[in-house]
Design goal:
The chain contains 19 helices and 25 strands. The protein has a five-stranded mixed β-sheet. A four-stranded mixed β-sheet has the order 2-11-10-9. Strands 5-6-8-7 form a four-stranded antiparallel β-sheet, covered by helices on one side. A hairpin with a 3-residue loop joins strand 7 (about 170-175) and strand 8. It is globular and about 70 Å long.
Length: about 625
Protein backbone atom coordinates (compact mmCIF):
# COMPACT_ATOMS: atom_id res chain seq x y z
CA UNK A 1 0.00 0.00 0.00
CA UNK A 2 1.40 3.38 -0.96
CA UNK A 3 0.68 6.23 1.38
CA UNK A 4 -0.72 9.55 0.24
CA UNK A 5 0.78 11.20 3.30
CA UNK A 6 4.44 10.64 2.55
CA UNK A 7 6.74 13.62 2.88
CA UNK A 8 7.16 13.88 -0.84
CA UNK A 9 8.33 17.07 -2.46
CA UNK A 10 6.86 16.24 -5.86
CA UNK A 11 3.36 14.99 -6.46
CA UNK A 12 3.81 11.60 -8.06
CA UNK A 13 1.28 12.23 -10.81
CA UNK A 14 3.00 15.42 -11.82
CA UNK A 15 6.55 14.17 -12.16
CA UNK A 16 7.94 10.72 -12.96
CA UNK A 17 10.43 10.80 -10.11
CA UNK A 18 10.27 11.04 -6.36
CA UNK A 19 12.33 12.19 -3.44
CA UNK A 20 10.85 10.25 -0.57
CA UNK A 21 8.20 7.53 -0.67
CA UNK A 22 6.77 6.16 2.56
CA UNK A 23 5.19 2.72 2.37
CA UNK A 24 2.80 2.02 5.21
CA UNK A 25 1.35 -1.34 6.18
CA UNK A 26 -0.01 -3.04 9.29
CA UNK A 27 -1.07 -6.56 10.32
CA UNK A 28 0.20 -10.03 11.14
CA UNK A 29 -0.27 -12.41 8.23
CA UNK A 30 0.74 -15.70 9.77
CA UNK A 31 -1.07 -15.50 13.08
CA UNK A 32 -3.95 -13.18 12.31
CA UNK A 33 -4.46 -9.65 13.59
CA UNK A 34 -3.50 -8.97 17.15
CA UNK A 35 -4.78 -6.21 19.40
CA UNK A 36 -1.83 -4.37 20.94
CA UNK A 37 -2.18 -1.05 22.69
CA UNK A 38 0.35 1.58 21.78
CA UNK A 39 2.88 -0.77 20.19
CA UNK A 40 3.90 -1.37 16.61
CA UNK A 41 2.00 -3.49 14.14
CA UNK A 42 3.72 -5.51 11.42
CA UNK A 43 2.49 -7.63 8.55
CA UNK A 44 5.63 -9.73 8.27
CA UNK A 45 6.59 -10.89 11.76
CA UNK A 46 7.20 -8.83 14.87
CA UNK A 47 7.88 -5.09 14.99
CA UNK A 48 11.52 -4.12 15.34
CA UNK A 49 10.86 -1.53 18.04
CA UNK A 50 9.32 -2.36 21.44
CA UNK A 51 6.34 -0.45 22.77
CA UNK A 52 8.63 1.68 24.95
CA UNK A 53 11.10 2.68 22.21
CA UNK A 54 12.33 6.28 22.26
CA UNK A 55 13.21 6.97 18.61
CA UNK A 56 13.82 5.28 15.28
CA UNK A 57 17.31 3.90 14.68
CA UNK A 58 17.88 6.06 11.60
CA UNK A 59 17.53 9.29 13.58
CA UNK A 60 20.18 10.89 15.78
CA UNK A 61 19.99 12.40 19.29
CA UNK A 62 22.69 14.82 18.09
CA UNK A 63 20.27 16.51 15.69
CA UNK A 64 19.83 20.25 16.23
CA UNK A 65 16.88 22.44 15.39
CA UNK A 66 17.28 25.54 13.25
CA UNK A 67 18.08 26.92 9.83
CA UNK A 68 16.44 26.87 6.42
CA UNK A 69 16.35 24.10 3.83
CA UNK A 70 15.93 25.41 0.27
CA UNK A 71 14.75 23.04 -2.45
CA UNK A 72 14.01 23.32 -6.16
CA UNK A 73 10.79 21.98 -7.65
CA UNK A 74 10.14 21.69 -11.40
CA UNK A 75 7.09 23.24 -13.03
CA UNK A 76 4.50 25.27 -11.21
CA UNK A 77 1.48 24.85 -8.92
CA UNK A 78 -2.02 26.25 -8.49
CA UNK A 79 -3.40 24.34 -5.51
CA UNK A 80 -2.55 23.24 -1.98
CA UNK A 81 -5.04 20.37 -1.90
CA UNK A 82 -3.23 17.11 -2.71
CA UNK A 83 -6.26 14.88 -2.24
CA UNK A 84 -8.37 15.78 -5.27
CA UNK A 85 -7.67 15.21 -8.96
CA UNK A 86 -8.04 18.82 -10.08
CA UNK A 87 -5.25 21.35 -9.83
CA UNK A 88 -1.47 21.03 -9.74
CA UNK A 89 -0.60 20.59 -6.10
CA UNK A 90 2.20 22.48 -4.42
CA UNK A 91 5.12 20.81 -2.67
CA UNK A 92 5.50 19.96 0.99
CA UNK A 93 2.02 18.83 1.92
CA UNK A 94 3.42 15.66 3.49
CA UNK A 95 4.95 17.82 6.22
CA UNK A 96 1.63 19.53 6.93
CA UNK A 97 -0.89 16.68 7.20
CA UNK A 98 -0.93 13.69 9.55
CA UNK A 99 -2.29 10.15 9.75
CA UNK A 100 -3.43 7.88 12.53
CA UNK A 101 -0.29 5.72 12.34
CA UNK A 102 3.23 6.13 10.98
CA UNK A 103 5.65 3.73 9.30
CA UNK A 104 9.24 3.10 10.24
CA UNK A 105 11.71 3.27 7.37
CA UNK A 106 14.11 0.55 8.46
CA UNK A 107 11.88 -2.52 8.59
CA UNK A 108 9.34 -4.18 6.38
CA UNK A 109 5.72 -3.03 6.52
CA UNK A 110 5.55 -1.95 10.15
CA UNK A 111 3.77 1.04 11.64
CA UNK A 112 3.50 2.70 15.03
CA UNK A 113 0.98 4.98 16.77
CA UNK A 114 0.93 8.63 15.75
CA UNK A 115 -2.32 10.62 16.05
CA UNK A 116 -3.89 7.44 17.38
CA UNK A 117 -2.37 6.45 20.71
CA UNK A 118 -3.70 2.91 20.41
CA UNK A 119 -5.76 0.65 18.19
CA UNK A 120 -7.81 -2.50 18.61
CA UNK A 121 -8.64 -5.01 15.88
CA UNK A 122 -11.67 -7.19 16.55
CA UNK A 123 -10.82 -10.90 17.00
CA UNK A 124 -12.85 -11.74 13.89
CA UNK A 125 -11.22 -8.85 11.98
CA UNK A 126 -14.61 -7.28 11.32
CA UNK A 127 -13.61 -3.88 12.70
CA UNK A 128 -10.75 -1.75 13.89
CA UNK A 129 -10.98 0.98 16.49
CA UNK A 130 -8.46 3.80 16.85
CA UNK A 131 -8.21 5.87 20.02
CA UNK A 132 -7.20 9.48 19.31
CA UNK A 133 -4.61 11.18 21.52
CA UNK A 134 -6.20 13.82 23.70
CA UNK A 135 -3.34 16.25 23.03
CA UNK A 136 -3.27 15.83 19.24
CA UNK A 137 -4.35 19.09 17.64
CA UNK A 138 -4.48 21.04 14.41
CA UNK A 139 -2.30 24.08 13.83
CA UNK A 140 -4.98 26.39 15.24
CA UNK A 141 -4.78 24.41 18.52
CA UNK A 142 -8.21 22.85 18.08
CA UNK A 143 -8.14 19.15 19.06
CA UNK A 144 -8.29 16.36 16.51
CA UNK A 145 -11.56 14.66 17.35
CA UNK A 146 -13.26 11.44 16.28
CA UNK A 147 -15.62 13.66 14.31
CA UNK A 148 -12.65 14.96 12.30
CA UNK A 149 -11.54 11.42 11.52
CA UNK A 150 -15.02 10.40 10.41
CA UNK A 151 -15.32 13.57 8.34
CA UNK A 152 -11.97 12.83 6.71
CA UNK A 153 -13.05 9.32 5.76
CA UNK A 154 -16.39 10.40 4.34
CA UNK A 155 -15.03 13.44 2.50
CA UNK A 156 -12.12 11.62 0.89
CA UNK A 157 -14.22 8.69 -0.29
CA UNK A 158 -16.97 10.93 -1.65
CA UNK A 159 -15.04 13.91 -3.01
CA UNK A 160 -11.38 12.94 -3.05
CA UNK A 161 -9.08 11.21 -5.50
CA UNK A 162 -10.66 7.93 -6.70
CA UNK A 163 -7.78 6.11 -5.02
CA UNK A 164 -9.44 6.69 -1.64
CA UNK A 165 -12.72 5.19 -2.81
CA UNK A 166 -10.89 2.10 -3.99
CA UNK A 167 -8.73 1.82 -0.89
CA UNK A 168 -11.65 2.03 1.50
CA UNK A 169 -14.22 0.19 -0.63
CA UNK A 170 -14.59 -2.56 1.97
CA UNK A 171 -15.20 -0.20 4.88
CA UNK A 172 -18.91 -0.21 5.67
CA UNK A 173 -18.98 2.73 8.06
CA UNK A 174 -17.04 4.88 10.51
CA UNK A 175 -18.56 5.78 13.87
CA UNK A 176 -17.57 7.36 17.15
CA UNK A 177 -17.16 5.10 20.19
CA UNK A 178 -16.57 6.56 23.63
CA UNK A 179 -14.92 9.95 23.96
CA UNK A 180 -11.86 9.47 21.74
CA UNK A 181 -12.49 6.34 19.69
CA UNK A 182 -13.35 5.82 16.01
CA UNK A 183 -14.58 2.41 14.91
CA UNK A 184 -14.36 1.31 11.29
CA UNK A 185 -16.61 -1.62 10.41
CA UNK A 186 -15.27 -3.80 7.62
CA UNK A 187 -17.20 -5.85 5.06
CA UNK A 188 -14.43 -8.31 4.22
CA UNK A 189 -12.66 -9.89 7.15
CA UNK A 190 -10.25 -11.67 4.78
CA UNK A 191 -8.92 -8.32 3.51
CA UNK A 192 -5.81 -8.26 5.66
CA UNK A 193 -4.85 -4.74 4.55
CA UNK A 194 -7.88 -2.78 5.65
CA UNK A 195 -6.70 -2.01 9.19
CA UNK A 196 -3.32 -0.84 7.98
CA UNK A 197 -4.78 1.08 5.04
CA UNK A 198 -6.96 3.05 7.44
CA UNK A 199 -4.04 3.63 9.77
CA UNK A 200 -1.70 5.20 7.27
CA UNK A 201 -3.66 6.26 4.19
CA UNK A 202 -6.32 8.41 5.78
CA UNK A 203 -5.09 12.02 5.89
CA UNK A 204 -6.72 13.83 8.76
CA UNK A 205 -8.75 16.87 7.76
CA UNK A 206 -10.29 19.51 9.99
CA UNK A 207 -14.07 19.32 9.76
CA UNK A 208 -14.38 22.93 10.92
CA UNK A 209 -11.95 24.17 8.27
CA UNK A 210 -13.61 22.36 5.39
CA UNK A 211 -17.06 23.37 6.53
CA UNK A 212 -15.99 26.89 5.60
CA UNK A 213 -13.75 26.01 2.62
CA UNK A 214 -14.77 23.86 -0.34
CA UNK A 215 -12.70 20.68 -0.25
CA UNK A 216 -13.64 19.66 -3.79
CA UNK A 217 -12.01 22.63 -5.54
CA UNK A 218 -8.33 23.58 -5.99
CA UNK A 219 -7.34 26.38 -3.65
CA UNK A 220 -4.27 28.33 -2.59
CA UNK A 221 -5.73 29.00 0.85
CA UNK A 222 -3.36 27.38 3.35
CA UNK A 223 -5.08 24.21 4.59
CA UNK A 224 -5.26 23.43 8.27
CA UNK A 225 -3.06 20.47 9.11
CA UNK A 226 -1.66 18.88 12.25
CA UNK A 227 1.85 17.94 11.13
CA UNK A 228 5.29 19.28 12.09
CA UNK A 229 5.12 22.17 9.60
CA UNK A 230 2.53 24.68 8.47
CA UNK A 231 2.38 26.98 5.48
CA UNK A 232 4.02 30.35 6.08
CA UNK A 233 4.13 32.13 2.71
CA UNK A 234 2.76 31.24 -0.70
CA UNK A 235 3.85 32.90 -3.93
CA UNK A 236 1.44 31.35 -6.45
CA UNK A 237 3.33 29.29 -8.99
CA UNK A 238 6.71 30.49 -7.69
CA UNK A 239 7.46 29.36 -4.14
CA UNK A 240 6.13 27.80 -0.97
CA UNK A 241 7.64 28.29 2.47
CA UNK A 242 6.83 26.07 5.43
CA UNK A 243 7.68 26.92 9.01
CA UNK A 244 8.21 24.45 11.81
CA UNK A 245 5.38 24.42 14.34
CA UNK A 246 6.65 25.59 17.72
CA UNK A 247 5.66 23.39 20.66
CA UNK A 248 4.19 20.89 18.23
CA UNK A 249 2.06 18.31 20.00
CA UNK A 250 3.79 15.38 18.22
CA UNK A 251 7.41 16.50 18.59
CA UNK A 252 8.36 14.13 21.40
CA UNK A 253 6.55 11.05 20.17
CA UNK A 254 8.98 8.20 19.42
CA UNK A 255 7.93 8.23 15.75
CA UNK A 256 8.96 11.90 15.44
CA UNK A 257 11.85 12.29 17.86
CA UNK A 258 14.98 13.94 16.39
CA UNK A 259 13.19 14.62 13.10
CA UNK A 260 11.84 17.72 11.31
CA UNK A 261 14.80 19.82 12.36
CA UNK A 262 14.73 22.76 9.94
CA UNK A 263 12.98 25.89 11.14
CA UNK A 264 11.84 26.56 7.58
CA UNK A 265 11.64 24.67 4.30
CA UNK A 266 11.39 26.71 1.12
CA UNK A 267 10.39 25.25 -2.23
CA UNK A 268 11.34 27.38 -5.25
CA UNK A 269 9.73 26.49 -8.57
CA UNK A 270 11.61 26.40 -11.87
CA UNK A 271 10.06 25.84 -15.28
CA UNK A 272 13.51 25.35 -16.81
CA UNK A 273 15.57 22.51 -15.25
CA UNK A 274 18.78 24.15 -16.46
CA UNK A 275 17.96 27.28 -14.48
CA UNK A 276 17.28 25.12 -11.43
CA UNK A 277 20.71 23.52 -11.73
CA UNK A 278 22.37 26.92 -12.07
CA UNK A 279 20.55 28.09 -8.94
CA UNK A 280 21.97 25.10 -7.09
CA UNK A 281 25.49 25.87 -8.32
CA UNK A 282 25.13 29.45 -7.05
CA UNK A 283 24.13 28.28 -3.59
CA UNK A 284 20.51 29.41 -3.90
CA UNK A 285 19.35 25.80 -3.50
CA UNK A 286 20.75 23.61 -0.71
CA UNK A 287 19.92 20.07 -1.76
CA UNK A 288 19.38 18.50 -5.16
CA UNK A 289 18.35 15.00 -6.12
CA UNK A 290 19.99 14.38 -9.48
CA UNK A 291 17.75 12.69 -12.02
CA UNK A 292 19.73 13.49 -15.17
CA UNK A 293 22.48 10.95 -15.83
CA UNK A 294 24.52 13.30 -18.01
CA UNK A 295 24.59 16.00 -15.34
CA UNK A 296 25.59 13.50 -12.68
CA UNK A 297 28.42 12.20 -14.86
CA UNK A 298 29.74 15.44 -16.33
CA UNK A 299 28.32 18.63 -14.78
CA UNK A 300 29.74 18.54 -11.27
CA UNK A 301 32.95 20.31 -12.20
CA UNK A 302 32.15 23.79 -10.91
CA UNK A 303 34.41 25.55 -8.43
CA UNK A 304 32.32 24.96 -5.31
CA UNK A 305 32.32 21.23 -5.93
CA UNK A 306 36.07 21.11 -6.55
CA UNK A 307 36.64 22.97 -3.27
CA UNK A 308 34.50 20.53 -1.31
CA UNK A 309 31.75 23.04 -0.65
CA UNK A 310 29.28 20.83 -2.53
CA UNK A 311 29.09 17.11 -1.78
CA UNK A 312 27.91 14.36 -4.15
CA UNK A 313 26.50 11.20 -2.62
CA UNK A 314 24.96 7.93 -3.73
CA UNK A 315 23.05 5.73 -1.29
CA UNK A 316 21.46 2.39 -2.04
CA UNK A 317 17.78 1.94 -1.31
CA UNK A 318 15.30 -0.91 -1.19
CA UNK A 319 12.28 0.96 -2.51
CA UNK A 320 10.02 -1.14 -4.73
CA UNK A 321 10.12 0.80 -7.99
CA UNK A 322 6.95 -0.43 -9.66
CA UNK A 323 7.03 0.56 -13.29
CA UNK A 324 7.89 3.64 -15.28
CA UNK A 325 7.43 3.87 -19.00
CA UNK A 326 5.42 4.82 -22.03
CA UNK A 327 1.88 3.91 -20.95
CA UNK A 328 -0.41 2.80 -23.79
CA UNK A 329 -4.07 3.80 -23.56
CA UNK A 330 -6.15 0.82 -24.66
CA UNK A 331 -9.27 2.97 -24.68
CA UNK A 332 -7.99 4.15 -28.06
CA UNK A 333 -9.19 1.79 -30.85
CA UNK A 334 -5.77 1.65 -32.50
CA UNK A 335 -4.16 0.41 -29.26
CA UNK A 336 -6.67 -2.28 -28.33
CA UNK A 337 -4.85 -5.07 -30.18
CA UNK A 338 -2.02 -6.51 -28.03
CA UNK A 339 -0.09 -7.32 -31.21
CA UNK A 340 0.03 -3.62 -32.03
CA UNK A 341 1.14 -2.76 -28.51
CA UNK A 342 3.85 -5.41 -28.61
CA UNK A 343 5.05 -4.22 -32.02
CA UNK A 344 5.36 -0.62 -30.83
CA UNK A 345 7.68 -1.81 -28.07
CA UNK A 346 10.27 -2.89 -30.64
CA UNK A 347 10.88 0.78 -31.46
CA UNK A 348 12.48 1.51 -28.09
CA UNK A 349 16.23 0.96 -28.31
CA UNK A 350 17.10 1.07 -24.62
CA UNK A 351 20.66 -0.13 -25.12
CA UNK A 352 21.43 2.78 -27.46
CA UNK A 353 19.73 5.29 -25.16
CA UNK A 354 21.52 3.97 -22.08
CA UNK A 355 24.90 4.06 -23.82
CA UNK A 356 24.60 7.43 -25.53
CA UNK A 357 22.44 9.43 -23.11
CA UNK A 358 22.67 7.76 -19.70
CA UNK A 359 26.35 6.78 -19.49
CA UNK A 360 25.24 3.14 -19.02
CA UNK A 361 23.94 3.98 -15.56
CA UNK A 362 20.38 2.69 -15.75
CA UNK A 363 18.68 -0.70 -15.54
CA UNK A 364 15.51 -1.34 -17.49
CA UNK A 365 12.30 -2.32 -15.75
CA UNK A 366 11.21 -5.87 -16.53
CA UNK A 367 8.24 -6.05 -14.20
CA UNK A 368 5.35 -4.01 -12.85
CA UNK A 369 6.88 -4.69 -9.41
CA UNK A 370 10.52 -3.86 -10.10
CA UNK A 371 13.16 -4.00 -7.36
CA UNK A 372 11.03 -6.20 -5.13
CA UNK A 373 10.41 -9.90 -4.40
CA UNK A 374 7.11 -9.52 -6.24
CA UNK A 375 8.74 -9.16 -9.67
CA UNK A 376 8.13 -12.30 -11.72
CA UNK A 377 10.92 -13.98 -13.66
CA UNK A 378 11.54 -17.11 -15.68
CA UNK A 379 8.67 -19.54 -16.18
CA UNK A 380 5.68 -19.70 -13.81
CA UNK A 381 6.26 -21.77 -10.68
CA UNK A 382 4.01 -24.68 -9.72
CA UNK A 383 2.08 -22.44 -7.36
CA UNK A 384 1.69 -19.77 -10.01
CA UNK A 385 0.44 -22.36 -12.50
CA UNK A 386 -2.27 -23.43 -10.05
CA UNK A 387 -3.44 -19.83 -10.04
CA UNK A 388 -3.16 -19.24 -13.79
CA UNK A 389 -4.23 -22.52 -15.40
CA UNK A 390 -7.99 -22.02 -14.77
CA UNK A 391 -7.67 -19.04 -17.15
CA UNK A 392 -5.52 -20.80 -19.74
CA UNK A 393 -8.01 -20.24 -22.54
CA UNK A 394 -8.07 -16.50 -21.80
CA UNK A 395 -4.32 -15.95 -21.58
CA UNK A 396 -1.55 -15.95 -24.20
CA UNK A 397 -0.09 -19.44 -24.61
CA UNK A 398 3.40 -17.92 -24.45
CA UNK A 399 2.81 -17.01 -20.81
CA UNK A 400 2.97 -20.71 -19.92
CA UNK A 401 5.76 -21.68 -22.32
CA UNK A 402 8.41 -18.97 -22.26
CA UNK A 403 9.82 -16.30 -19.93
CA UNK A 404 8.73 -12.75 -20.66
CA UNK A 405 11.54 -10.74 -22.23
CA UNK A 406 11.87 -7.25 -23.66
CA UNK A 407 13.35 -6.49 -27.08
CA UNK A 408 17.08 -5.83 -26.92
CA UNK A 409 19.71 -4.48 -29.33
CA UNK A 410 23.48 -4.28 -29.53
CA UNK A 411 23.36 -0.54 -28.79
CA UNK A 412 24.70 0.44 -32.20
CA UNK A 413 21.48 2.11 -33.28
CA UNK A 414 20.79 -0.57 -35.89
CA UNK A 415 17.46 -2.18 -34.97
CA UNK A 416 16.79 -3.91 -38.29
CA UNK A 417 15.99 -7.28 -36.68
CA UNK A 418 13.55 -5.70 -34.24
CA UNK A 419 11.91 -3.82 -37.11
CA UNK A 420 11.32 -7.13 -38.90
CA UNK A 421 9.66 -8.60 -35.80
CA UNK A 422 7.50 -5.51 -35.40
CA UNK A 423 6.44 -5.62 -39.06
CA UNK A 424 5.30 -9.24 -38.68
CA UNK A 425 3.18 -8.30 -35.67
CA UNK A 426 1.67 -5.32 -37.49
CA UNK A 427 0.85 -7.59 -40.44
CA UNK A 428 -0.90 -10.07 -38.12
CA UNK A 429 -2.87 -7.13 -36.69
CA UNK A 430 -4.08 -6.14 -40.16
CA UNK A 431 -1.60 -3.41 -41.08
CA UNK A 432 0.42 -2.87 -44.21
CA UNK A 433 3.03 -0.35 -45.32
CA UNK A 434 1.75 1.84 -48.14
CA UNK A 435 3.81 4.74 -49.45
CA UNK A 436 5.86 4.70 -46.27
CA UNK A 437 2.85 4.77 -43.94
CA UNK A 438 1.48 2.00 -41.76
CA UNK A 439 -2.14 1.57 -42.89
CA UNK A 440 -4.88 -0.50 -41.28
CA UNK A 441 -6.35 -2.50 -44.14
CA UNK A 442 -9.89 -2.70 -42.77
CA UNK A 443 -10.27 1.02 -42.10
CA UNK A 444 -7.74 2.48 -44.52
CA UNK A 445 -6.46 4.72 -41.74
CA UNK A 446 -2.78 5.33 -40.93
CA UNK A 447 -1.52 4.56 -37.44
CA UNK A 448 -0.98 7.88 -35.66
CA UNK A 449 0.38 8.18 -32.14
CA UNK A 450 0.98 11.16 -29.88
CA UNK A 451 3.15 10.79 -26.79
CA UNK A 452 2.70 13.36 -24.03
CA UNK A 453 4.88 14.19 -21.05
CA UNK A 454 5.37 17.02 -18.59
CA UNK A 455 9.08 16.37 -18.10
CA UNK A 456 11.26 18.41 -20.48
CA UNK A 457 14.20 16.03 -20.20
CA UNK A 458 12.04 13.23 -21.63
CA UNK A 459 11.97 14.95 -25.01
CA UNK A 460 15.62 14.24 -25.76
CA UNK A 461 15.29 10.72 -24.39
CA UNK A 462 12.30 10.05 -26.64
CA UNK A 463 13.79 11.33 -29.90
CA UNK A 464 15.31 7.95 -30.77
CA UNK A 465 12.03 6.20 -29.99
CA UNK A 466 10.07 8.62 -32.18
CA UNK A 467 12.58 8.18 -35.00
CA UNK A 468 12.17 4.41 -34.89
CA UNK A 469 8.37 4.64 -34.76
CA UNK A 470 8.42 6.79 -37.87
CA UNK A 471 10.72 4.30 -39.57
CA UNK A 472 8.00 1.71 -38.93
CA UNK A 473 5.55 3.90 -40.83
CA UNK A 474 3.81 5.30 -37.76
CA UNK A 475 2.94 9.00 -37.72
CA UNK A 476 4.42 9.66 -34.28
CA UNK A 477 4.96 12.90 -32.41
CA UNK A 478 6.10 13.86 -28.92
CA UNK A 479 4.65 16.79 -26.95
CA UNK A 480 5.82 18.41 -23.74
CA UNK A 481 2.87 19.87 -21.81
CA UNK A 482 2.86 22.05 -18.74
CA UNK A 483 1.82 20.26 -15.57
CA UNK A 484 -1.74 21.55 -15.65
CA UNK A 485 -2.37 20.42 -19.22
CA UNK A 486 -0.66 17.11 -18.64
CA UNK A 487 -2.67 16.29 -15.54
CA UNK A 488 -5.95 17.32 -17.14
CA UNK A 489 -5.35 15.01 -20.09
CA UNK A 490 -4.05 12.23 -17.87
CA UNK A 491 -7.01 12.37 -15.50
CA UNK A 492 -9.50 12.38 -18.39
CA UNK A 493 -7.53 9.67 -20.26
CA UNK A 494 -7.22 11.97 -23.26
CA UNK A 495 -3.99 10.59 -24.69
CA UNK A 496 -2.56 7.83 -26.86
CA UNK A 497 0.65 7.29 -24.91
CA UNK A 498 2.05 9.13 -21.89
CA UNK A 499 5.20 8.93 -19.84
CA UNK A 500 4.19 7.85 -16.39
CA UNK A 501 4.95 5.98 -13.21
CA UNK A 502 3.08 3.50 -11.03
CA UNK A 503 4.78 3.10 -7.67
CA UNK A 504 4.47 -0.15 -5.75
CA UNK A 505 5.07 -1.14 -2.15
CA UNK A 506 6.48 -3.91 -0.02
CA UNK A 507 2.98 -5.28 0.41
CA UNK A 508 0.81 -5.07 -2.73
CA UNK A 509 -2.88 -5.06 -1.96
CA UNK A 510 -5.92 -2.80 -2.22
CA UNK A 511 -4.18 -0.17 -4.36
CA UNK A 512 -3.95 -2.68 -7.21
CA UNK A 513 -7.67 -2.07 -7.80
CA UNK A 514 -6.84 1.52 -8.68
CA UNK A 515 -3.93 0.56 -10.93
CA UNK A 516 -5.39 -2.27 -13.00
CA UNK A 517 -9.03 -2.85 -11.95
CA UNK A 518 -11.88 -2.69 -14.45
CA UNK A 519 -13.87 -0.21 -12.37
CA UNK A 520 -10.89 2.13 -12.16
CA UNK A 521 -10.60 2.09 -15.96
CA UNK A 522 -13.85 4.05 -16.09
CA UNK A 523 -13.08 6.45 -13.21
CA UNK A 524 -11.54 9.77 -14.28
CA UNK A 525 -8.52 10.46 -12.14
CA UNK A 526 -7.76 6.83 -11.37
CA UNK A 527 -4.30 5.35 -11.91
CA UNK A 528 -5.53 2.81 -14.45
CA UNK A 529 -4.02 4.93 -17.21
CA UNK A 530 -3.90 1.89 -19.48
CA UNK A 531 -7.66 1.30 -19.54
CA UNK A 532 -7.25 -2.34 -18.48
CA UNK A 533 -10.62 -4.10 -18.24
CA UNK A 534 -9.78 -7.77 -17.88
CA UNK A 535 -11.79 -10.20 -15.70
CA UNK A 536 -8.66 -12.30 -15.20
CA UNK A 537 -6.77 -9.29 -13.83
CA UNK A 538 -9.73 -8.42 -11.59
CA UNK A 539 -9.75 -11.96 -10.20
CA UNK A 540 -6.02 -11.94 -9.57
CA UNK A 541 -6.27 -8.60 -7.74
CA UNK A 542 -8.92 -10.12 -5.47
CA UNK A 543 -6.59 -13.03 -4.77
CA UNK A 544 -3.74 -10.64 -3.95
CA UNK A 545 -5.90 -8.72 -1.49
CA UNK A 546 -7.09 -11.94 0.17
CA UNK A 547 -3.62 -13.52 0.56
CA UNK A 548 -3.10 -14.82 4.11
CA UNK A 549 0.65 -15.49 4.10
CA UNK A 550 3.63 -13.68 2.66
CA UNK A 551 4.51 -16.67 0.49
CA UNK A 552 0.98 -16.78 -0.87
CA UNK A 553 1.09 -13.06 -1.57
CA UNK A 554 4.34 -13.37 -3.52
CA UNK A 555 2.99 -16.16 -5.75
CA UNK A 556 -0.26 -14.29 -6.43
CA UNK A 557 1.50 -11.05 -7.30
CA UNK A 558 3.86 -12.97 -9.57
CA UNK A 559 0.82 -14.33 -11.39
CA UNK A 560 -0.68 -10.85 -11.70
CA UNK A 561 2.62 -9.46 -12.93
CA UNK A 562 2.85 -12.08 -15.68
CA UNK A 563 -0.64 -11.36 -16.96
CA UNK A 564 0.08 -7.63 -17.05
CA UNK A 565 3.43 -8.11 -18.79
CA UNK A 566 1.95 -10.31 -21.51
CA UNK A 567 -0.76 -7.70 -22.04
CA UNK A 568 1.88 -5.24 -23.33
CA UNK A 569 0.27 -2.25 -21.65
CA UNK A 570 3.50 -0.36 -21.20
CA UNK A 571 6.87 0.06 -22.86
CA UNK A 572 9.07 -0.03 -19.77
CA UNK A 573 11.56 2.67 -18.94
CA UNK A 574 14.51 2.48 -16.55
CA UNK A 575 15.63 3.44 -13.10
CA UNK A 576 18.39 3.36 -10.50
CA UNK A 577 18.68 1.34 -7.34
CA UNK A 578 20.47 4.21 -5.67
CA UNK A 579 19.61 7.74 -4.68
CA UNK A 580 21.87 10.29 -6.39
CA UNK A 581 21.98 13.66 -4.70
CA UNK A 582 24.20 16.63 -4.01
CA UNK A 583 24.13 19.23 -1.25
CA UNK A 584 26.00 22.22 0.08
CA UNK A 585 28.29 21.16 2.89
CA UNK A 586 26.43 22.51 5.89
CA UNK A 587 24.38 19.45 6.80
CA UNK A 588 24.83 16.52 9.10
CA UNK A 589 22.77 13.36 9.08
CA UNK A 590 22.47 10.15 11.14
CA UNK A 591 25.07 7.43 10.69
CA UNK A 592 22.38 4.99 9.58
CA UNK A 593 20.20 5.72 6.56
CA UNK A 594 16.63 4.46 6.20
CA UNK A 595 16.02 1.65 3.72
CA UNK A 596 13.13 3.23 1.86
CA UNK A 597 13.95 6.92 1.94
CA UNK A 598 16.70 9.49 1.65
CA UNK A 599 15.63 10.58 5.10
CA UNK A 600 16.14 14.31 4.73
CA UNK A 601 13.61 14.87 7.51
CA UNK A 602 16.29 13.44 9.83
CA UNK A 603 19.06 15.81 8.63
CA UNK A 604 20.04 19.03 10.35
CA UNK A 605 22.21 22.09 9.78
CA UNK A 606 25.48 22.12 11.69
CA UNK A 607 26.23 25.70 12.84
CA UNK A 608 30.01 25.29 12.49
CA UNK A 609 29.76 23.85 8.97
CA UNK A 610 27.31 26.56 7.98
CA UNK A 611 29.61 29.28 9.29
CA UNK A 612 32.60 27.83 7.42
CA UNK A 613 30.56 27.54 4.25
CA UNK A 614 29.40 31.15 4.44
CA UNK A 615 32.97 32.33 4.91
CA UNK A 616 34.24 30.20 2.01
CA UNK A 617 31.52 31.51 -0.28
CA UNK A 618 32.27 35.07 0.82
CA UNK A 619 35.97 34.58 0.11
CA UNK A 620 35.18 33.12 -3.30
Amino acid sequence: MISFISCVFYKKKSFPFFLMIHLFLIGVMNSGFCTPTGGGFSIHGNPKYPSNFTHFGYTSPEAQKGGVLRLAVPGTFDSLNPYIITGVVGAGHGFVFTTLMKQSQDELSTIYPYVAESYDVAPDKSSITFTIRADACFHDNTPITPEDVIFSFETLTQKGNPMFKNLFADVIKAEKVGDQGVKFTLSKTQNRELPLVLGVNLPLLSKAFYTIHDFSKPSLISPLGAGPYQYETIEPGRSITLKRVQNWWGENLPVNKHMYNFDSIKFDYFRDPNVAFEAFKLGEIDFRQENVAKLWATAYTFAAFKKGLVIKRETAHEIPLGTMGFFLNTRKPELQDPKVREAIGYALDFEWINKNLFHDSYTRHKSYFSNSPFASSGLPSKEELKILEPFKDKLPSRLFKEPFTLPTTDGSGNIRENMKKANLLFKEAGYEIRHGKLIHLATGKPLKLEIISNVPTMEKTSLNFIKNLRAMGIEAKFRILDSSQYMERMHSFDFDILTGIVMQSNNPGNEQLNFWGSKAAEEPGSSNYFGIKDPVVDHLIDLVIAATTYEELVERVHALDRVLLWGFYTIPHWSLKEFRYAYWNKFKYPSKSPLYDIGIETWWIDPALESSLKQAMKDA
